[in-house]
User: What shape does this take?
Amino acid sequence: MRIGLVGAGFMGGVHLNAYAGIPEVEVVGVADARAEAAVAGAEMVGARPYASYEELVAAEDIEVIDVCLPTAFHRELAVRAAGEGRHVILEKPIARTMEDAQQILEAFSGDGPRLFVGHVVRFFPEYVGIKEKIDAGDLGTVGVVRTSRRSPFLLGWNDWYADWRASGGVLLDLVIHDFDFLRWVLGEVDSVYARGVLGREYNRLDYVLATLRFRGGAIAHVEGHWGYPGPFNYSIEVAGSRALLAAESTEPGTLELFRETAAPGEVPDLASGKNPYQKELEHFVDCILTGEEPILEGRDAYEALRISLAATESVLSGRPVTLGGRT
Assistant: This one.
């Protein structure tokens, strides 16, 4: 399978590293407006560098376009690639606005090329283990979940993360991981209430605390932090009627299971094996080759965006926002 990657920044490099371990694919070209980034990315996988998507597809026979551009550029390139009959792997979030996301879904709504959106947390072993235990009923009825995702402030092309209009801030670029995972395991969100620092003058620090109420009755408290004074890290606790399950990235490879009638137990070695990005991209490639459905559909990415934008609205208005189920 011949792949072309557009956007050779940090996330583009992560994807290229992952492709290097997938024998079914050949990355034949890497496009970036910054010549040095295109060259460096191409060298990682033995591909050829290009200055633009247009140059890439004019020179190479491309079956799949991997889009790792800033969020605001997702719609234009995804819709164009779909119209040209190319499958698209699109790094999350699906788009910056609901209107853009809807246009992307419509472009891939037929029997032609397929869309895959990279919500990689669904492939992290700790989170896979949590979903398996919830689905198996090991925790009983889930009542409360607490998540935290903390990162130093991100640097990118033209400092686009610092422009909230382009990036959507910590809610749209970081916390959306947790929103997608929580909806995956707990179902639809009825309402969200969030407080944060969005709108203050200093744009290189973003913090939010959001409370989600789910249709099934569970409540989740979701924390996100850009500008964290330390390395990236995350944590999650899931409290059910039978047990509490916790994972912490600073102690990789373990889930701690706490039961009322037993000492804390450990589910070992969950972080071994391939990195989650390689698992994600292997899954997408396999779906293209076999025709199988992915574990994350375009509509799931759309709903994660809807939750994130509702939380943004709540931060700006100071009031809860009702989602009312899927649209």
User: Anything to note?
Assistant: Residues 261-272 have pLDDT under 50 and may be disordered. The radius of gyration is 20 Å. The CA atoms of residues 95 and 251 lie 33 Å apart. The chain has two domains: 2-119, 121-274+296-322.
